[in-house]
């Protein structure tokens, strides 16, 4: 605070002070300081990022996106891309969000963060083949150590009907992180969808249900898995 008061126009002094105000919950003061900084440092990308962050905290998504867009025009870095894509998606402009991410990847084709985000967005859009291709590029660089990445690859392969690949990736993810609720859910989910190992599918979804007792999707899948297991047991 002392440094900021001595150098009120110095972005390097003011930005840490504003972030400190934000972290302490003083959003109103932080907002006033950020606007003042932005007005005096229009060519500093971080000044616009700060305003955007605070606008998001205040619930002004459109204003946040506008601030992040100004930051992009100065320096299209990974933090700028992530914030802008998020703000555009929150405002309902999925087309602009996708175009922003595509533009970033065009100049940064090896960005693991960009490739992962693009893969996850394609999963959400049920573009399974595109999603798995993108996420496999990430996995090729990181190996088989990221349980969340592997679980999402399992989702993609399952959606594409490639059940063996889905189960393989989900099993590795579960071996790495058996206490992770998302990993547990996905493993049970892909087993259920494949029709293989109904007992394991039921057990995994029972575990997921205990972890997420209020999750409607998990509850519905558990009922389906329990019925599938009873049916398979009757045939034996």
- What is the N-to-C succession of helices and strands? HHHHHHHHHHHHHH
Beta-strand share of residues = under 5%
Largest sheet: none
Residue runs with pLDDT of under 50 for 5 or more positions:
none
Work out the helicity level: over 70%
Rg on CA atoms, Å: 23 Å
Distance between the termini: 73 Å
What's the helix count?
Answer: 14
Structural class: mainly alpha
Total beta strands: 0
Summarize model confidence as the mean pLDDT.
Answer: 93
The geometry reads as elongated
What does this structure look like?
There is one protein chain. The protein is mainly α. It contains 14 helices and no strands. The longest helix is centred in the C-terminal third of the chain and has 20 residues, at 216-235.
Properties at a glance:
236 residues; mainly alpha; 14 helices; elongated
Blueprint of the fold:
Layout: H1 2-6, H2 11-23, H3 27-40, H4 45-57, H5 61-74, H6 78-90, H7 94-107, H8 112-124, H9 128-142, H10 147-159, H11 163-176, H12 181-194, H13 198-211, H14 216-235
């Amino acid at each position: 605070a002392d440094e900021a008061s001595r150098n009120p126009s110095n972005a390097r002094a003011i930005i840490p002070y504003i972030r400190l105000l934000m972290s302490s919950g003083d959003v109103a003061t932080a907002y006033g300081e950020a606007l003042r900084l932005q007005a005096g440092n229009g060519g500093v990308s971080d000044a616009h990022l700060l305003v955007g962050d605070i606008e998001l905290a205040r619930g002004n998504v459109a204003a946040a996106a506008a601030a992040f867009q100004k930051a992009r025009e100065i320096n299209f870095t990974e933090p700028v891309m992530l914030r802008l894509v998020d703000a555009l998606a929150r405002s309902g402009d999925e087309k602009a969000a996708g175009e922003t991410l595509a533009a970033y990847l065009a100049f940064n084709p090896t960005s693991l963060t960009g490739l992962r985000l693009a893969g996850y967005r394609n999963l959400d859009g049920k573009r399974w083949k595109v999603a798995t291709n993108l996420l496999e590029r990430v996995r090729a660089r990181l190996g088989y150590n990221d349980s969340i990445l592997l679980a999402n690859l399992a989702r993609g392969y399952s959606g594409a009907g490639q059940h063996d690949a889905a189960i393989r990736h989900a099993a590795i993810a579960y071996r790495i992180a058996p206490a992770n609720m998302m990993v547990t859910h996905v493993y049970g989910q892909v087993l259920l969808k494949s029709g293989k190992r109904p007992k394991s599918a039921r057990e995994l979804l029972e575990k997921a249900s205990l972890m997420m007792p209020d999750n409607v999707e998990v509850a519905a899948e558990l009922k389906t898995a329990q019925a599938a297991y009873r049916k398979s047991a009757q045939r034996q």
